[in-house]
């Protein structure tokens, strides 16, 4: 038994085996469950998931990632910025098979992991790309950008909004300080062509903490009519 699996035994995830999970994820369930199992097996070993996270893997990570899906386009290109372990990008790709999901991540060991996961789960709509957002400006453009636990919105706007085409949407998973971050970042957003940001509560299954999502549309691309 691995250390991660031992942790699971000592503090089991209360949602493991919950019969609401499969209907919630629908046709994406086999891939999402497979991703969960890969994280349990290798997540701690590869420095992707802390040992205390295994008892809340479903709620804090997988369902939390799934909460962004209703706010994303079902087709086109979605860029997952700073994809890390694949949260929310792998979950998004599983749930939106008609969209191209670009997992943008600067660390080689993480891009190796993401490529292995996409191949193992047969997620043909995933493109793994090694790099930083600011190095992709003017090269990589998407219909939406997702991001989770990367930086404050003020920094995030500078990285993410230039990756959006006009009319594209930034969908960021945020916590209790979302409104405060929106206020601080609004001038930066305006310079980059972003509209007014909003905070939306995104529920998943009953009893699970509601995810807070920040949405902002790029209404204009400076210098482009």
TrEMBL record:
Keywords: Cytoplasm, Methyltransferase, rRNA processing, S-adenosyl-L-methionine, Transferase. It is found in: Cytoplasm. Gene3D superfamilies: Vaccinia Virus protein VP39. The keyword Cytoplasm applies. It is an enzyme of class 2 (transferase). Its EC number is 2.1.1.-. S-adenosyl-L-methionine binds at residues 82, 87, 133-134, 148. SUPFAM superfamilies: S-adenosyl-L-methionine-dependent methyltransferases (SSF53335). GO terms for molecular function: methyltransferase activity. GO terms for biological process: methylation. Belongs to the methyltransferase superfamily. RNA methyltransferase RsmG family. Specifically methylates the N7 position of a guanine in 16S rRNA. PANTHER family: S-ADENOSYL-L-METHIONINE-DEPENDENT METHYLTRANSFERASES SUPERFAMILY PROTEIN. This is Ribosomal RNA small subunit methyltransferase G. The lineage of its organism: Bacteria, Bacillati, Actinomycetota, Actinomycetes, Micrococcales.
